[in-house]
Amino acid sequence: AQRVTQPEKLLSVFKGAPVELKCNYSYSGSPELFWYVQYSRQRLQLLLRHISRESIKGFTADLNKGETSFHLKKPFAQEEDSAMYYCALSGLTDNAGNMLTFGGGTRLMVKP
Amino acid sequence: GAGVSQSPRYKVAKRGQDVALRCDPISGHVSLFWYQQALGQGPEFLTYFQNEAQLDKSGLPSDRFFAERPEGSVSTLKIQRTQQEDSAVYLCASSPRTGRNIQETQYFGPGTRLLVL
Question: What is the percent of chain B where pLDDT is above 70?
């Protein structure tokens, strides 16, 4: 079974401070990991995926298979980063339609 | 272009009432997913369609839940004899291809918020 854990329901930081949103997963095969973000009154949207190895809006995330983690980081938080963040996992199989398993989400609040 | 749309956006139902939730995926998207998101939790998978075929319904919580996508585009999630525990946001997502051996990006709709009284 696949599982995603986000230990923090709420993370509050000041503008300009570093941010780390934690995500741990369990999966027996080769997973693909994602971070989705939901801004206020907007729909859920993809922020980044580990396979792309890119930085989006200053955020990065590194897949650590040894620690089964995929923490999301940003060196300097901005007020517009305030949102709900979900870590998600998909198992890469030969079955069509790889559904996502989501963590419970972390609400990030960036204070001025 | 137009994204995934869902209707209604809000639905209040009396316990025992049947409801139908509609999803219009992005045009041409092969894959369609339904998720249920209870208050304060992350979305949970319900069912998956590839075109008109329902290939995975392992997440449907009971036989009161039924989904269809008869022509391979619009999908309807039906809940019969609604219960209070069915209150949640129901999310629809679509992706361009089948995702075989690679995870395609899923594009989410705004969700339907269902409240069962």
Answer: 94
